[in-house]
Amino acid sequence: MVENGPITGLPFMKMHGLGNDFVVIDARETAVTMTAPLAAALADRHRGVGFDQLAVIHQGDGADLALIFYNADGSTAGACGNATRCVARYEMQRTGATALTLRTERGILQAVDVGGGLTSVNMGQPQMDWQDIPLAHEMDTLKLPIEGAPTATGMGNPHCTFFVEDAETVDLAARGAEMEHHPLYPERTNVQFAHVIGPDHLRMRVWERGVGVTLASGSSSCATAVAAARRGLTGRKVTIELDGGTIQIDWRDDGVWMTGPTAHVFDAALTSEYLAAL
After folding, report:
1. Beta strands in the chain, from DSSP E residues, in sequence order
2. pLDDT band per the 50, 70, 90 thresholds, residue 29
3. SS3 state at 170
């Protein structure tokens, strides 16, 4: 709902990065109280708008802007790489800037316009210690004691990456749903299945925590690139082929940089009648 007066509608933007789609609400001028039920209602692709994640823009408090993320089930997410890139692109086009900072639960992230319609975001250093991801108890995060020996990585949210012979043949819906709730992950987890195409090239498919099967995921791409490098399967700079397109990941000394295209699809507003009925 919108604070300070009667509900008259709520403007929003629809964006996507490689088919990973978002509703974005700019709350810097109009205060918005987002709740889990409202986020879940908006995520309904039949009765709402539909999205993989919802991003709400706030004043930056030491950064150019701040972001809070919600999953399709109404739960919050600590990081959302593709939404961060989409919002960064929007803000740079709005202000004419070529670089900016965004405050998230992950920390303050840097974004840069690299030309050619591509936006890069530094998603920060990966979390590789069990307590930081977090996992349920101490263990080696490189190969978890789970069938398939996946790798655990934190990118502001938990990830579980399986390296398989052929990611195309995995029953993603069944395996992803099962692994999201594995007892080793007390906060649930995002799940990736990837195979190696070459020393700097991966194919990956994604199940997102609180969402389900998605065409792409920025933080999952970062986690998979880190896991592949740690296991000696690739170098630290890779191209990842997702169901929704191609993204570039570069694990540098200052963090994991993610580069790819974004799309601002349309602007619209939720009606007062829709909001009042929630």
Report:
1. 10-17, 20-26, 53-58, 65-71, 76-77, 99-104, 107-115, 118-122, 151-154, 158-163, 190-198, 201-208, 212-214, 237-242, 245-252, 255-261, 263-270
2. confident
3. coil
The distance from CA 95 to its chain's CA centroid, rounded to whole angstroms, is 24
Q: Where are the domains of the chain?
A: 10-123+262-277, 151-253
Q: Does the pLDDT of residue 222 top 50, yes or no? A: yes
CATH value of 151-253 in 3.40.50.300, 3.10.310.10, 1.10.3210.10, 3.40.50.2300:
3.10.310.10
Q: What share of the chain is helix, strand, coil (3-state, %, to 5)?
A: 20, 40, 40
DSSP 81: H
Return the biggest CA–CA distance within the chain.
Answer: 58
Average pLDDT in the chain = 94
Pairing of strands 190-198, 245-252: unpaired
Tell which CATH architecture fits domain 10-123+262-277.
Roll (3.10)
Matching CATH topology for 10-123+262-277 and 151-253? yes
Structure confidence by residue, pLDDT tens digits, 151-196? 999 999 999 999 999 999 999 999 999 999 999 999 999 999 999 9
**Coil, helix or strand at residue 220:** helix
Q: List phi, psi (to 5°) of 58.
A: -125, 170
The answer to whether the beta carbons of residues 193 and 162 sit under 8 Å apart is: yes
DSSP 97: -
Whether pTM exceeds 0.90 = yes
